What does this fold into?
Amino acid sequence: MDITEVFEVINRMHTQGVIQDYAIGGAVGATFYLEPISTLDVDIFVSFQAESQSVILDPQPVFEYLKSQGYFMQGEYVMIGGWPVQFLPPNSKLVEAAMVNANSIQVAGTTTRVFSAEYLAAIALETGRAKDKARLLQFVESGTLDKVAFDDIIKEQSLVEKWKVFSKQFLEETP
Amino acid sequence: MNSHFQKIQASKQRMRNVLQELPVREKMRLLDEMRERAVVLQNASNKASVLREEQAPYVSNQVPKS
It folds into this structure.
């Protein structure tokens, strides 16, 4: 297993124009800011090249490129460096904004794009599954969040009510 | 919450802080290790999710004679 191979491959794809923009999200993205979080896969959000006169964004060139480099598909994943990698389109305004505001971070000599801690926390709030709530709590307790930036995001993305519910449920002291 | 539990919680938080402050390369190495372990466990559970015993050799040979 070598997750840095994933970063090298995705960076190469970006440099060679196979993908326009990308950022790492999910548990791997969160691990850049928190303690390592065990996960089964790597989530990479990608802006796919839009085909001319088509609103459908086509991920096919990504898979063709990776196949040509000797990587293989396993279900909806591409196996890179022993890791199942999932390429996901930005599926909400929040994720689109997270991609625009992603951080560039060096790992083992490779620059990689990662969602910021504040956007990862906001995405966890928006997604709202049990594991997302646990991750959001980790972000809050770790002290890594820039509270002003996080507040701006949740206001901009209409997540204030969800945040109030979450805060009441998990952050207020119980007797 | 009693003081013993508070100590445990504080100790866990200290450990989490130490892990959080590790260099990114080291954290990624730990992710690799955790995935390797998950794959081993997954393969083990795919082969035999329930512990099975081979049939005892005497079962078919010892049908009581009527």
